[in-house]
């Protein structure tokens, strides 16, 4: 996470924040579809490391472990299981029948602001076929409706054109730039976008994913 996000911060009641934490603790899959991504488990570390070790996957993402090793990926999975217990984070993976992990989703939640952030990546063989846009839209829906969030805040590096186009195209509002810090302490600039639940629902109602 980045200290400067979300940009919009509206405190919700302690009870609402507790309910959001409960929903995070109960989550098992990212949505209800039969092929929905499931929670990452410690024994996913080798397959998740195989996905993440491709620079086409890890280079644009500041939240991944550095250095990236199978052990650091295992610790990344474990820290998300701890975040799930705390009601503040979830890590999901989508596994193929051959055991490869074809995508992951990293959900971060600020329960006291009813806000969240989604990160993630697809296997490079699936890039640029609109699968990212479809998956992100379904995940945003789930975060607003099943986690009861009011706001989503997203970031992308200045070079990450696919993510920038995706968020602009989905109607997220640009909110400037923040300095994001990687786990090894290095920094990078990120563009920031936000979307409120009301605005998201209005777009969905108008048939605009
Ligand atoms: C970001 C990511 C999930 C997007 O998914 P995707 O399926 O590849 O993207 P889509 O096919 O849905 O395309 C999204 C937009 O990016 C554009 N795009 C896709 N690949 C592109 C490329 N290589 N160069 C320029 N634009 C590209 C598409 O044309 C589309 O824009 P449009 O709607 O204006 O036409 C995927 O590329 C990925 O996993 N990247 C690596 C990790 C990453 O960057 N994660 C996000 C940061 S947390």
UniProtKB/TrEMBL annotation:
Signal peptide per UniProt: none
One term of GO molecular function: acyltransferase activity, transferring groups other than amino-acyl groups
Database matches in Pfam families: Acetyltransf_3 (PF13302)
Residue runs in coiled coils: none
Ranges for domain N-acetyltransferase: 35-198
Protein name: N-acetyltransferase domain-containing protein
Gene source species: Hyphomonas atlantica
